Structures are given as C-alpha cells and as structure tokens.
Amino acid sequence: MMHPYRCVICGETSLVSAAPERCPFCGSDRKNLLPAAEWIGYGEVEMCEKSYRACEIALGLELDNYAFYKCSAAKAENQVTQAIFERLMEQELEHAEVFAEAMGIPFHELETDRCSESDFINMKKSNKHEVRAIKFYTKVANEAPEPRIKQIFSVIAEVEQEHLIVTNMYLPR
Ligand SMILES: [Fe+2]
Ligand SMILES: [Fe+2]
Question: I want to staple 33 with a disulfide (CB 3.0 to 4.6 A). Which of 19, 78, 107, 143 is the partner?
C-alpha cells in the first residue's frame, strides 16, 4: 500500500510503500523523509544577515549548477550520462527552491550554453562546481546560528557529496 512520505528539506511528497533510501526530489537521506502527518513545514526562516547572504550565494550556486547540468544533459553523448545529468539538474533546481523558500523570495531558472560537447569535460567541470558548493555549505552549516539553516546547509552539502561520487564514478575514461 502506498503512503505519503514528505521531505523536511524540500517539502516534496513521495507516495510509496516504504520511505525510499533518498528523497527522489532533492536527494537528501531517508532520515529526512517523514510520514506526511508528522511533517513540519519551515517556510521562510528568520535569520541573521550573514545567513541570509549565505543563502543568497547558495541560491546562485544552485541555479548556476542547474543551468550547467541542463546544458550538459542536452549535449550528453549517451543515455547513461544524459540520465545522470538530468537527475542532477532536477536536484539542483530543488535545492535552489529550498534556499529561496528559506529566504522568502521567488526565483527564476537560469539558462546557459556554457557547457562542453564532451561528457568528460562536463563531468570534470561538474566536480569543480560540487567541490566549491560542498566547501561553502559545510562552512555555513558549522557557523550559522539558526538550527534550520544549519540543517539545510549540512543536508544539501551531503547531497552534493553524493553528486561528486556519482560524477566521479561515471566520469568517462
Ligand atoms: Fe527532498
Ligand atoms: Fe545542489
């Protein structure tokens, strides 16, 4: 039987018989998926100026990565790399939504054609992007005074770590 499990990071619901290993939308770990009745919506978060600025930077990184993966998916050399780039693209957009919601602002998707025709080059570049995000998110998770901001940054840093593992594993040789 299907039950609604809702993610405390992105707010999306999965209708499944048991909580999946990861949120299919934002990629966060199973421990963030709660039965819908126990779910708590945080919405806009009251935060200090420094945390707001961190969310602003994070939103920019996520939208940038979203556009990059979208471009990479469109130019993918085979259906495996295309599938990976498309999933990463969706997750980055979901992350952008998480930061925008915490800040209480709308956001617009970005477009870019700044990616290569080569999966190899795009995977390499993606690694650079992910490492940049992981470093920054981990720092904010350690320093931010607000528990919800800490939670968002540490969970999303962990998801980006998974992105890094995926792109390393499928890096065409
Ligand atoms: Fe999620
Ligand atoms: Fe992300």
Answer: 19
